[in-house]
Specification:
By secondary structure, this protein is an alpha/beta fold. It contains 14 helices and 16 strands. The strands form 4 sheets. A 6-stranded antiparallel beta sheet has the order 15-14-1-7-5-16. The protein has a 6-stranded parallel beta sheet with strand order 9-8-13-12-11-10. Helix 5 crosses helix 6, helix 5 packs parallel to helix 14 and helix 9 runs parallel beside helix 12. It is elongated, with a radius of gyration of 28 Å. It starts with 17 loop residues before the first helix and ends with a strand.
Length: about 450
């Protein structure tokens, strides 16, 4: 299922802890306090006894207002400048659908979601924000008895904030990469419980990029959990620990992987174990091509496919200089996965076949084999670093990005926070504007009524 087919993800997809959510387990206490206060006031028959300056011009008797059962209109909106990719709407709706209501005198939960009016955009929408809280873009709007959904503000905003932050960060990275493949590598940098939501946000951002820029970038995740909500599956090849199992011999590790794993798994060799990305890359290519050629000559193309090297991946630490990079005395130019290292790798890989004792078709096959090996770069990549690589035409084919995708994006001048504001109240069947000073009801043409 894609997010752009206008179908929303059903509530069971999110595996919500419904019982504890209804009890307020995941809610800030002040929401629990107001919900219970309003319920007790309603039961006691309390009526408004204060003053309401913002409503003083109404021709209604405010002393008849049943505060405990007050109906309010609440809007949720993001505050990331200049805009964000909205993700988390379907989960927020699932939380409202399952958690809106109250417990009756017998302790049974009475769901009142169907009595509310709910509007929402779809995951994958974009929401601009220019910093003016009087001019915001609501992504969700609810009208209903406030005490029935007050406790759900915390988890709904959390779902929207997390999903939109990850999706917007992914979108910025893919734009910087100009449509090159971006591998989603943040799983190890946060609790495993968030992998499904994060992987979904990544996939939504990839789809939005393809839609907006006419591209066909595919989604690549590293864990199965990241694909749980949309049917994706994790992928990956050889880690540093795997190379260590082969006593630091990257070529042997890659050959063993190729021999034992299905051919449809891309063979990408991690080549910085000995801090010699150029030397290790050509060692791996020699070993893999030798077997590839042997099986091709023997008329066993299916077996040969196992030894087709898809790519090599440098992952040099930011404080280390690869032995193939001549020092210039500037860590920014010498260390980590830098442009000079990738240029050196590409040159060595493209020329490697020329040193092999081959002729005719075998020589042509060797040249094509080497030139088709891709370079996947990882290690501290951000949109700024990716843009630098692209501006310099660095021959990186794939970018792997990890922790930055979970960051709060300080460079944007704001986190990906969401705010939920009461903006209207219902009195005697009519809706009236009522919001704290500096806020007001806003509209968004992308809002759709949720049935």
């Amino acid at each position: 299922m894609t997010v752009f087919d206008r179908r929303r993800l059903p509530a069971p997809v999110f595996k919500l802890d419904v019982e504890r959510m209804r009890q307020g387990w995941y809610s800030d206490k002040y929401f629990i306090n107001i919900a219970r206060t309003l319920a007790e006031l309603a039961a006691a028959g309390y009526r408004f006894g204060g003053t309401a300056p913002d409503l003083s011009d109404l021709d209604v008797d405010l002393a008849n207002v049943d505060v405990g059962s007050i109906e309010e209109a609440v809007q949720w909106f993001p505050r990331r400048q200049p805009s964000c990719v909205v993700v988390g709407v379907d989960k927020a709706l699932a939380i409202l659908r399952e958690g809106t209501g109250y417990f009756d005198a017998q302790g049974r939960f009475v769901n009142t979601f169907g009595e509310m009016e709910v509007w929402a955009v779809h995951d994958g929408s974009e929401a601009p924000y220019d910093g003016d809280v009087l001019n915001v873009t609501p992504v969700m709007r609810v009208r209903g008895r406030y005490r029935d959904f007050a406790m759900l503000e915390t988890p709904t905003m959390g779902a929207l904030t997390r999903g939109s932050r990850v999706a917007t960060n992914v979108y910025e990275v893919v734009k910087a990469a100009a449509g090159k493949q971006v591998l989603f590598f943040p799983a190890r940098f946060d609790a495993f419980e968030v992998q499904a939501a994060d992987g979904y946000a990544y996939q939504v951002a990839i789809q939005l990029f393809n839609q907006n820029f006419g591209k066909s970038v595919s989604a690549h995740i590293s864990t199965d959990a990241q694909g749980d909500w949309w049917g994706g599956a994790g992928g990956g090849t050889v880690a540093h620990s795997a190379v260590a199992c082969f006593l630091g011999d990257t070529a042997e590790a890659t050959m063993a992987f190729a021999a034992t794993r299905p051919a449809d798994i891309p063979r990408i060799a991690l080549v910085d174990f000995r801090n010699d990305c150029v030397g290790t890359s050509v060692q791996v290519i020699r070993a893999m091509f030798r077997k590839y050629l042997e099986l091709t000559r023997a008329g066993r193309p299916d077996e040969a496919r196992k030894y087709k090297l898809f790519g090599v991946r440098p992952d040099t630490a930011a404080n280390m200089r690869d032995v193939s990079v001549l020092p210039l005395g500037d860590k920014r130019l010498d260390c980590g996965v830098n442009p000079r290292l990738v240029f050196a790798m590409r040159e060595a890989i493209d020329k490697e076949w020329q040193a092999w004792d081959l002729s005719g078709d075998d020589r042509a096959l060797a040249e094509r084999y080497c030139r088709e090996v891709k370079i996947a770069v990882t290690g501290g990549f951000t949109p700024a670093k990716i843009r630098q690589f692209e501006d310099l035409d660095v021959p990186a084919d794939i970018y792997g990005v990890g922790s930055w995708l979970l960051s709060s994006c300080d460079v944007c001048g704001t986190n990906n926070d969401y705010t939920a504001d009461v903006v209207r109240v219902r009195i005697e069947g009519r809706w009236y504007d009522l919001a704290k000073t500096g806020r007001q009801a806003c509209d968004n043409l992308m809002l759709e009524r949720v049935q």
